[in-house]
Amino acid sequence: MAATDLAATRRQLLQSGQAGKLDAPGLRQVLVDLHEFWLTSKGAELGVRPQSGYAIVAVGGLGRGELLPFSDLDLILLHDGMPHDEVAEVADGLWYPLWDANIALDHSVRTVPQALQVAAEDVSAAMGLLEARHIAGDEDLSNLLISGVRQQWRTEIRDRFPAVVSHAQDRWRRAGDIAHRAEPDLKNGRGGLRDVQLLGALAIAQLTDGMASLRPDSPGAGPQVAYARLLDIRTELHRIAGRPREQVRAQDADEIGAALRIGDRFDLARVISDAARTISYSIDVGLRTAGNALPRRGLAKLRRSPIRRPLDEGVVEHNGEIVLARNAIPSKDPGLILRVASASARTGLPISASTLSRLADYAPELREPWPAEALSDLLVLLGAGHHMVDPIEALDRTGLWGRLLPEWGAVRDLPPRDAIHTWTVDRHLVETAAHAGSMTTRVSRPDLLVLGALLHDIGKGRGADHSIVGADLAIQIGNRFGLWPQDVTVLSEMVRHHLLLPSIATRRDLDDPATAEFVAETLGYNRALLELLSALAEADSLATGPGVWGEWKASLINDLVRRAFRLIDGDELARPDALTSEQIALAEAGGFSVDIEQADGPHTFRITMVAPDATGLLSKMAGVLSLNGLRSHSATVQSHAGSAVNTFVVVPLFGSPPEAGLIRQQLMAAVDGKIDVLARLDARETESPIPTIGSVSAPGAATSAGSTDPAVDGAGHPKNAVPALFAVAPPRVLWVHHDAEATGPDPGPDPGEVILELRTDDRLGLLSRVSSVIERHGAQVRWAKVTTLGSTVVDTFCLHLADDGEAARTALADDVLAVCPPPQPRSDDDGNGPDAYGGTARSGVPIS
């Protein structure tokens, strides 16, 4: 067959009518067979036969056996040191017919040593040669090259791995992320065909098994299935465009979708996103696994195996990954999925692929309503800011996120209908929740803020008004989460009205009193709901795309919110519940007493501590609990008959709480001055391997993939997360003074008293530290109500100040803020602070 006949046959295949049209895999196979036949025939004609000292070797698409309609022919004429003139004659006889027939050709002529030298110097060439396949001629010569390249690759991978990762990252920077590009590059983008080929190269180096462990029922069903989908789409793209093209353009998308029986361009975009995200997850796991599997040299060989550091009940860190503890039993612990995810978000460490696989296989579904512990872990995850994105993506790619939120399937990989959106709908929800995590201290209900952010567009993809559909789904989901009925109502209203403020602010006259009245009336004059929607509007805009949130939009919404606040009465102040008869009896008996009882969940306990009331007692009580590894989720501080009666709801970091008698002895020692609680908390926080909620990796840790720094793994992740006290949201102090003219069921604190409300991310011993600051300023705590909502605490103290002057209150607030985790710098800060709509809290009292 002449090369012109080969080209004509190729054209005929691509011009076949619908009845004779081959499907994408069939077309690729026919093209492979056709070109192999021509090359074999032409090679025999030129003397390229077995034992001839010549071989034709294919790389690229033909080497992989997946030749596309307009892909280049990547060929190597291999020879065994033959005379130059003879080699040139054979090469010309092979290349010129292809050139004359206008068949795209990428060619080279090499001996085996020359080819190995090229592979040793060029990462791209090496990875291409790993896919080499014998086509015609001396098969022993081809095998010598193929085996030599693979052996060389395995031998040198330790030194070449950083270059391999850098090469991939450079490609991703140029081509972008396929899952979130309007016109994705299927070949070179992140999550594309090149990434699966990279996984194959790592498998040849014996660093990975080639593919991440994904269940058949997981989204994308595994990287091989995802690869086949993208390859079929790329095949149709070539056929429709009539040229070699890698980017799916909008004008071609409908035709590609129809040819593959996928649907319209939106359906095609969803398939591409699903496949790309599956491959992206797989390449993340593959690079991380490969980095950890790199062979060690020198003294590194003598290094002990990485230790297992406990992070939560049943969750540990090992070799830079989140894994299950040896005694963890997923089949008997439904909340383990969320504890693993929250630990990953807190530490910034990835979840091990084997852990995800084990959870997917054995972890049961949470019963409805969820236990309070599971909801708390979800809130910790959602409150971690952008640290939450990777754990949720890992759960989603392995089918675990859909197990927690079955409603997620309708929005998974759903492409936006508006070009202004950067992300798919599901990723937009996650990004909105991540932005909301930096705003949790601006609202009185940070838990509802992050939940509302996660669910505000959950009604999309169902063929009706997504706000109305989503509001109904929010009721269903809120009940499953175990929220109180009134909180379920607020969550549903957030979803129903999440577009209210942006729509009214940008389309109505704000100077018209009826505008603010309409907003207040629509929201049922609910101050907390208005506060939540204000923060959600900003988070939603920031997660939509660049430029959607700016000074103009922020000023309009803040002005509208400020006007609506004026029409809404203040909400009731937090007050503790009355003491029980048992607590009263303990207080009247005097002395020290500690009582521990099981609370709502298997890992939650209620501890009542009674002691003679004295300055500094609250700080010591809270500190003793923290030193025993007990995290306070809520606390009620009261007094009676000269005794302090403080109740704490706690969750142990691991196992069960210590005996009540031991805590009582430690409390007495702390009161007597035998234990310096704050000093021990500082030492524990410094030495602890357990990162604080909202923490970041230690400054100076290497971030480049492939680093050989022992503090990071091969993919650039920190191996040992060092506690660094940075909060996702900035801490805030709010003051509420007595209003002599206030009316209603709760007019406020008594005359001479003030309410100090602290909103901040948590840290080890925070309540003890804050109480110590208050006591140091000579303030008396009349009562206190402490609540931990995920990773955010809302602590309310009723204080009698020794000096109620402005300077004294400012100094107290500054010292309280000083013991809170400082906020991480926000790259998206546009100068519109969280309190731009008025900077006030309750009855117009300024926030410090």
Automatic annotation (TrEMBL):
<dbReference type="GO" id="GO:0008773">
    <property type="term" value="F:[protein-PII] uridylyltransferase activity"/>
</dbReference>
<feature type="domain" description="HD">
    <location>
        <begin position="425"/>
        <end position="526"/>
    </location>
</feature>
<protein>
    <recommendedName>
        <fullName>Bifunctional uridylyltransferase/uridylyl-removing enzyme</fullName>
        <ecNumber>2.7.7.59</ecNumber>
        <ecNumber>3.1.4.-</ecNumber>
    </recommendedName>
</protein>
<keyword id="KW-0511">Multifunctional enzyme</keyword>
<keyword id="KW-0677">Repeat</keyword>
<dbReference type="InterPro" id="IPR003607">
    <property type="entry name" value="HD/PDEase_dom"/>
</dbReference>
<keyword id="KW-0460">Magnesium</keyword>
<dbReference type="Pfam" id="PF08335">
    <property type="entry name" value="GlnD_UR_UTase"/>
</dbReference>
<keyword id="KW-0808">Transferase</keyword>
<comment type="function">
    <text>Modifies, by uridylylation and deuridylylation, the PII regulatory proteins (GlnB and homologs), in response to the nitrogen status of the cell that GlnD senses through the glutamine level. Under low glutamine levels, catalyzes the conversion of the PII proteins and UTP to PII-UMP and PPi, while under higher glutamine levels, GlnD hydrolyzes PII-UMP to PII and UMP (deuridylylation). Thus, controls uridylylation state and activity of the PII proteins, and plays an important role in the regulation of nitrogen metabolism.</text>
</comment>
<dbReference type="InterPro" id="IPR006674">
    <property type="entry name" value="HD_domain"/>
</dbReference>
<dbReference type="InterPro" id="IPR045865">
    <property type="entry name" value="ACT-like_dom_sf"/>
</dbReference>
<keyword id="KW-0548">Nucleotidyltransferase</keyword>
<dbReference type="Pfam" id="PF01966">
    <property type="entry name" value="HD"/>
</dbReference>
<dbReference type="InterPro" id="IPR043519">
    <property type="entry name" value="NT_sf"/>
</dbReference>
<dbReference type="InterPro" id="IPR002912">
    <property type="entry name" value="ACT_dom"/>
</dbReference>
<feature type="region of interest" description="Disordered">
    <location>
        <begin position="821"/>
        <end position="848"/>
    </location>
</feature>
<dbReference type="InterPro" id="IPR013546">
    <property type="entry name" value="PII_UdlTrfase/GS_AdlTrfase"/>
</dbReference>
<dbReference type="InterPro" id="IPR010043">
    <property type="entry name" value="UTase/UR"/>
</dbReference>
<feature type="domain" description="ACT">
    <location>
        <begin position="755"/>
        <end position="827"/>
    </location>
</feature>
<feature type="domain" description="ACT">
    <location>
        <begin position="606"/>
        <end position="682"/>
    </location>
</feature>
<feature type="compositionally biased region" description="Low complexity">
    <location>
        <begin position="694"/>
        <end position="707"/>
    </location>
</feature>
<feature type="region of interest" description="Disordered">
    <location>
        <begin position="689"/>
        <end position="716"/>
    </location>
</feature>
<feature type="region of interest" description="Uridylyltransferase">
    <location>
        <begin position="1"/>
        <end position="310"/>
    </location>
</feature>
<comment type="similarity">
    <text>Belongs to the GlnD family.</text>
</comment>
<keyword id="KW-0378">Hydrolase</keyword>
